[in-house]
Amino acid sequence: MSSKDVILGRVRAALRDAPAPGPVPRDYRREFPAADLDVLVDRLVDYKASVRRIGSEQVAAVAREIAGGTVVVPEGLPVAWRPEGVLVDDGLTPDRIAAADAVLTAAAVAVAETGTIVLDASPDQGRRIITLLPDVHIVVLRPGQVVASVPEAVARLDPSRPLTWISGPSATSDIELNRVEGVHGPRHLHVLLLDS
Amino acid sequence: MSTFLGMPATAPRGVGHLRGDEPFPAAAHTALANDQLRRNLRHATTTIRGKSGRVIAELPDWQELRSAGSAIKADVMSRLPELLEELEARVTERGGVVHWAADANQANAIVTELVRRTGSERVIKVKSMATQEIALNEALEAAGIQPVETDLAELIVQLGNDQPSHILVPAIHRNRSEIREIFLTAMPGVDPGLTDDPPVLAAAARKYLRETFLSTKVAISGANFGIAETGTLAVVESEGNGRMCLTLPDTLITVMGIEKVVPAWRDLEVFLQLLPRASTGERMNPYTTMWTGVTPGDGPQDFHLVLLDNGRSAVLADPAGRSALHCIRCSACLNVCPVYERTGGHAYGSVYPGPIGAVLSPQLTGIEDNASLPFASSLCGACFDACPVRIDIPSILVHLRNRAPHPKSERAAMRAAAYTMDRPKLYARAQRAAKLARIAGRRGRGLPLGWNRARDLPEIPAQTFRDWWASR
């Protein structure tokens, strides 16, 4: 007999007399006003991310200035956003990605209420590895990608894609609960919020 | 005892970290004598309570979210077999391989064999309660495979040859100078000029682990949620070590308790609001990774999901106790518990400490093996208020106290007390005798139960109510 049969048999036996549960109440907030970009900025800054509100034509220059060195970008990043001399990820080795100074990507969704940016590995965001190894992550965010709440973000996302939810740079509170930014992930998160 | 299909079985003895070496009162006694530990704990729990309270207050619908979370979990338990099969089907469709482990021994054997097949002699690990529960690290080491904990706190615990003492912040019982000592003693290649400044300590861990992340081909994780509808798994973390383990290696092995399945993608909208605020007191934890099977060209191309029972079906068999399985491991109940705050996690003897551990561990192992844990509580109810999925821990504690085996002498004394209280004349005589005892000597002297080692006996009044009534 397989372990699967054993486990499912045990679970069915355990539930033999269990009453059917009632319906799940969904009376928490599910309707939200338009996302407040100021709230998003406030939450991002609270998590030690830095935020700049700029025009789309400034992305390349600002990214160059923040990175100060080599910038990795995914293959699908708009060409107009790319600083000169970027390293396009066409299957770069982990060592080359780790040696870059920064990575520049787009995003899928952002949540104002929690200061969260979600990447879904679309062509303008790339493989998960490129946003993981460089010390600086620069994210370009379009206002239309910002929602107010977690339920709206969940509704917009496609679970079949690999998803990375980012709320501020890497942080730990393991030593006497002192928040220390940057243990393993990027130590610096820069958000470039585009004008509409 | 022979087992047969359909008989819920508790977690086996001799493997895993669900049973302590000594009962709670004895272990707590040692912990209470440690001033440093109590200072560390009080600072930590007070800080998290404050942060958590502030961010929870920002949500006007916190109670509605709690009710939804509780109802979703109740629904999960009632449909567990179909949801697990749905999860298996979706994960398999997406190129993952699902394994079923009836207990800790089986899970350890499955994981060890999977690692062996890769030829790797080292694995990197994401912090995971399930793998702590089954003592996977010990099993891997016995098989000649080196498990490297990559969460900073778990690393501190591992390098210090220690046990975790909190679900969320396993090294909460250590302060910065202790951590510095551990690093200096046990971290290969550490800078001898290391200070005890937390950013310096964190940077030392970053440096030490970077090379390991990039050169290890197999990772092992737990899962916070497994979504039946889509086959998606989610790991919630802070440091990015989770992202490293879940993204860089060729092979990923995830060990998930069967109770972690949730029905639908949409259900994450509830739990992703509840978990971070209740747990770390943040609006959202820094990183969450979600993956569905294998994605060509991105992340591990070989994915295995191990579904673990190890006593969970036995918990499910008790209608009064099964809601302990609703736990999402946020640790809010630890941080509000006056008992935990004073004893710390080690006293509970299980990887699940605090109030939730006091109800979960005895049910997973069978009450005989953790008989003292349901009594490790003041029943103040703070844990119920704090629980983001509304587990009524105090009621389960009381229920388990009734099921716990009581010492012979205690049962005899209680029977005698019941007999006496049923007979008014006898009761009056007993009260007079108690008065004499008060005159005769110290409180509680001669009680054979050991009760008075942990409890204060009430002062026996100079005049009983009956005497007062009669003399009125």
UniProtKB/TrEMBL annotation, chain A:
Bilayer-spanning residue ranges: none
Secretion signal span: none
Domain LUD: 95-194
InterPro entries: FTHF_cligase-like_sf (IPR024185), LUD_dom (IPR003741), NagB/RpiA_transferase-like (IPR037171)
Domain of life: Bacteria
Pfam families for this protein: LUD_dom
The protein, known as: L-lactate dehydrogenase complex protein LldG
Automatic annotation (TrEMBL), chain B:
InterPro entries per record: 4Fe4S_Fe-S-bd, 4Fe4S_Fe_S_CS, FTHF_cligase-like_sf, Helical_ferredxn, LUD_dom, LutB/LldF, LutB_C, NagB/RpiA_transferase-like
Keyword Metal-binding: yes
Keywords: 4Fe-4S, Electron transport, Iron, Iron-sulfur, Metal-binding, Repeat, Transport
Matches recorded under PROSITE patterns: 4FE4S_FER_1 (PS00198)
Keyword Magnesium among UniProt keywords: no
GO molecular function, one term: metal ion binding
4Fe-4S ferredoxin-type domain span: 324-391
Domain Lactate utilization protein B C-terminal intervals: 403-472
Sequence ranges assigned to domain LUD in this UniProt record: 84-294
GO biological process: lactate metabolic process
A Pfam family the protein falls into: Fer4_8
Highest rank taxon of the organism: Bacteria
Name of the molecule in the record: L-lactate dehydrogenase complex protein LldF
Lineage: Bacteria, Bacillati, Actinomycetota, Actinomycetes, Micromonosporales
